[in-house]
Fold:
Amino acid sequence: MGRKWNNIKEKKASKDANTSRIYAKFGVEIYVAAKKGEPDPESNRALKVVLERAKTYNVPKAIIDRALDKAKGSGEETYTELRYEGFGPNGAMVIVDTLTNNVNRTASDVRSAFNKNGGNMGVSGSVAYMFDSTAVFGMTGKSLDEVFELMMEADIEVRDIVEEDDVVIIYAEPDQYHEVQEALKQAGVTEFTVAELSMLPQTYVSLPEDSIPQFEKLIDALEDLEDVQQVYHNVEYDEE
Structure:
């Protein structure tokens, strides 16, 4: 089930840090989550998940506070959550999650990114059924056996626990996110390398070496779009 989560995150964070793009996207995501309920993570679970993710990406406190203040104040922007599905080179499957205040613009931009980079859009449901919504936590400082025992002591039956590059990764049901997080924090784990709800493919595909640059170009083009929050795919290759 492993996906080299830390390598992927570090690659994306390194690329995004150069443009501060990741901060702007988190600003929107935090604002939207806060507007769905109270702008307090203790009473708003969706907001708590977003803030935990922001922490793993080192989003500055000023960005977080600005988004929360906007949600508490007169911010009345309306965002729509949309999911697009499509295919890359050699039939690779791609899911694109967006938050947008202009649906027509976003649909056009996502379609254009697919068409210009060797992919094509699919209809709703054409790809998502091959992915599973999953809570993912990564941490250092604990062994695989220690984490396994922690989950047993907390009476939490997760999907899988693995070790990848000295990082222990827990894969759990999405509705177990807060339960797993609380058990880990009670055991002294306060820093996570990964803490998010993700879409994991049920099966992976490998691309011919000469198709990988085009696929990476497609993923980069999608991630570069202002309204795109997350891009998931089922291609397995060395992302370092």
Notes: The chain has a mean pLDDT of 89. DSSP finds eight helices and eight strands in the chain. Residues 76 and 132 are 33 Å apart (CA to CA).
